[in-house]
Design brief:
By secondary structure, this protein is α/β, with parallel strands linked by helices. It contains 16 helices and 5 strands. It comes from Schumannella soli.
Length: 315
């Protein structure tokens, strides 16, 4: 195969690198960007030379290859040469679904693996949580004029989940997934506001920009991310770290979701605890507000089920 043809075919893997860049650590992203801008480097340099060229370590190169679904650097280079010919489906599965799952796994095997990995992620996240920080954040949210929550793509679903929970207990908040509107809202934040940015990688530019704008406006800013050294963590006043397990489910947002929801539940409950009476009253009002839109429970024949009686004989 001619060299030009080898590179052309081999760099079908470039699409995978680009797809995974947002969820890579800063060090792995340097490797990915180097491979994308200088394809021959990955084929001609040793793992040590490639690491030096990218300003990182050989161990990071190995982790980079595994993130893309290859056992090691040699297999990664082989994949670049042959474009995954003859094994493309298997490699695609490893990259797009996860290494810890196999197409032939039984449903019980899949469930067991999910439970094991997610349990470890939850335990790791719990060990990383600074309870004083989260308690202080809950107090700030309760007394704030407004809370902005920023998240793009998969993280917007997480941001919206936090918004939905807090809104039911009367917190004036909004989840922003569209950066233009989010930036405008961030501009009108002040010292009486709180802003939370959510990004698994901490490298989502739009989320970083929105949180940075809120910080410049005077709001208390908090990042929720798996990377404490990320751009999002750097622009925030403080950071809550969520543990992301070894890549087992793609996209990485899905792998990190259980840990993020644990943090969201903790924030929600600690906010709710700030004033039990007020929270209970607001929850009741929220429930009554939508009660007219709930269907009446009916029997199979469509008749209404009567209310339970006390067992007393009517007078």
């Amino acid at each position: 195969m001619a060299r030009a043809e080898t590179l052309e075919n081999g760099f079908r893997a470039a699409a995978r690198i680009r797809a995974n860049l947002p969820q890579m650590s800063a060090a792995m992203a340097k490797i990915g960007e180097l491979v994308l801008t200088d394809p021959p480097a990955a084929l001609e340099l040793s793992i040590t030379e490639l690491a030096e060229r990218a300003g990182t370590s050989a161990a990071t190169v190995t982790r980079f290859c595994r993130l893309l679904g290859y056992p090691g650097f040699a297999q990664f280079r082989l994949g670049l040469v042959d474009g995954g010919a003859g094994d493309d489906a298997q490699e695609t599965w490893k990259v797009d679904i996860g290494r810890q799952f196999a197409p032939e796994d039984s449903p019980s095997d899949v469930l067991r693996t999910l439970l094991s990995v997610q349990s470890r992620a939850l335990e790791a996240t719990a060990s990383l949580i600074d309870l004083e920080l989260v308690t202080s954040l809950a107090q700030s949210i309760w007394s704030s004029r407004h809370l902005d929550i920023y998240g793009v793509g998969g993280s917007w679903a997480v941001a919206n989940e936090l918004h939905s929970r807090l809104y039911r207990i009367g917190i004036d908040c909004h989840a922003w997934g569209e950066p233009h509107s989010g930036l405008v809202s961030a501009e009108f934040q002040d010292e009486h506001c709180v802003a939370i940015g959510i990004s698994t990688s901490g490298r989502t530019a739009e989320t970083v920009d929105m949180l940075a704008r809120a910080a410049a406006s005077g709001a208390r800013t908090v990042a929720i991310t798996s990377d404490r050294d990320s751009a999002l963590a750097r622009v925030a006043e403080s950071c809550i770290t969520t543990a992301s397990p070894d890549v087992y489910l793609q996209p990485t947002d899905l792998a990190a979701r259980p840990s993020q929801l644990l943090v969201l539940d903790l924030i929600y409950l600690l906010v709710a605890q700030q004033d039990f009476t007020a929270t209970a009253t607001r929850l009741t009002r929220s429930r009554l507000a939508v009660s007219g839109h709930r269907r009446v429970t009916s029997s199979p024949r469509g008749a209404r089920i009567p209310r339970a009686t006390t067992g007393r004989t009517p007078a």
